[in-house]
Model the fold of this input.
Amino acid sequence: MGEEKELTIALAGNANVGKSVIFNQLTGSHQIIGNWPGKTIEKREGYLIYKGYKIKVVDLPGIYSFSTYSEEELISRDFIAKEKPDVVINVVDALHLERNLFFTLQLIELEAKLVIALNQIDLLEKSDFTIDSNKLENILNIPIVPTVAIEGKGIEKLIEKCIEIYEGEIKYEPIKIEYGKEVEERVNELIKVVSFDTSYPKRWFNIKLLEGDEKIKKLVRDEKILEIIEKKSKELEEIHGEPISLILTQEKYNLSNKITSEVLIKKEKRVNISDFLDKIFLHPIFGYFTLIISLFLIFYLIFKFGNFVSRYLESFF
Ligand SMILES: Nc1nc2c(ncn2[C@@H]2O[C@H](COP(=O)(O)OP(=O)(O)OP(=O)(O)O)[C@@H](O)[C@H]2O)c(=O)[nH]1
Ligand SMILES: [Mg+2]
Done:
């Protein structure tokens, strides 16, 4: 066998969606637990060897809210934007599709190469809803693997997809997230002005500048450029009458709402005969009535039928 190929996969998603369970499934006992540099938040890394690949897996902290930039979110976004893992597995809670898709859209904007683990399918199956995952895959144009992390279902397929993306076997061209004309014009103008190199994706970086993201703005040391950014932000706020971050957030919410409504299907409640009978016969109150009526019917039939048969036999003999 030749040299092992090495790649890095990060697990990202909302809080409590199953990232750590998938991490454990992938890495087993090969784990290193430490802290993120300068932070109290736990960092979990591990690796697995799969078909000649040595895969490093990083379990990113879960994202709780989007209104304020939490430490968890900053760690996750910096890791994805700067360390640029080869593939990001975006773990999505199938029971909260809309909220989770909002985060997916942010990951797309960060230009991460994604494979989506549509997790907790077991719970979805028990719910009143189902998800058309093929349609979702087509809309996002991102590979989707349904998983039940606690049972290890779908985990191998996840790795396979990650490797296909890494090897360029899947053409990776996810849905484009575009804002209104006014925003787009200004983002494109800014991209020309803010031409210095950052490790962040260009479009994302300039959108954050327009939004007034303090952490990102600090990276621009040129007063002149900062003034231009300020001016463009002001213009946009005047046009929309709202802070830009709110406008862009709203657009992403609208999009995740629209996508969700296209793929989330309410199951048709089919009336199952045995369920129906169970309901009648096992009901705590009506059950007694149905029992009495059934017994009555049974005796009635026995006597009626018995009478009939005995009369028939008598006349026969
Ligand atoms: N029924 C079911 N439960 C699951 C599944 N995956 C994860 N869970 C449960 O969901 C809970 C959260 O799982 P974690 O792996 O800790 O979630 P996480 O994304 O790492 O959470 P944070 O680290 O807090 O962001 C646990 O109780 C898991 O047992 C699944 O596919 N089906
Ligand atoms: Mg976790």
Remarks:
- The pocket of magnesium ion (ligand 2) is lined by residues 19-20, 59, 62 (CB under 6 Å).
- The chain has three domains: 5-176, 181-263, 273-316.
